[in-house]
Write a structure and sequence with these properties.
The chain is an alpha+beta fold and 135 residues long. The strands form two sheets. It has a four-stranded mixed beta sheet with strand order 3-6-5-4, covered by helices on one side.
Length: 135
């Protein structure tokens, strides 16, 4: 396999292209009046399944990037804050059976993107006070 494909619906192409161009750090390879395409060589995909009591239709919990170090979290957070994004930070949080440092940014249509570094495994799914999306 060469690429994993994720296609999302957006309401404002210009705002969304601007957001994702800043988050991904690359220009789109194709832009039409109703379509834009980004190709990223890295990162690979970390795909999770999150159990819910009920699921209706096609829905996504969130998207994210797993990084290699705590320093990467700081660097990406600083980079995106310089671009004008509000980054909601969680340090030493327990989520998805792991202790993590992370932050979140939200695209123009409300899709949340998590940048996270896993410090260690945990026997707990989450700590109640965290906003872990693997609820």
């Amino acid at each position: 396999m060469k690429y994993v494909h994720v296609g999302i619906n957006v309401t404002n192409l210009e705002k969304s292209v601007d957001f994702y161009q800043k988050v991904f750090g690359v220009e789109p390879v194709k832009v039409k009046t109703d379509y834009a395409k980004f190709l990223l060589e890295t990162p690979g995909l970390n795909f999770t399944l999150n159990v819910r009591d009920e699921v209706h239709g096609n829905q996504v919990s969130h998207f994210g990037f797993q990084v290699e170090s705590a320093e990467d979290i700081v660097a990406h957070k600083m980079r995106l804050e310089k671009e004008g994004f509000f980054a909601r930070e969680e340090i030493d949080t327990t989520c998805c059976y792991a202790v993590q440092d992370k932050f979140w940014v939200t695209d123009p249509d409300g899709n949340e993107w998590e940048f996270f570094y896993t410090k260690s495994d945990s026997d707990m799914h989450k700590i109640e006070s965290t906003s872990c999306w693997g609820l």
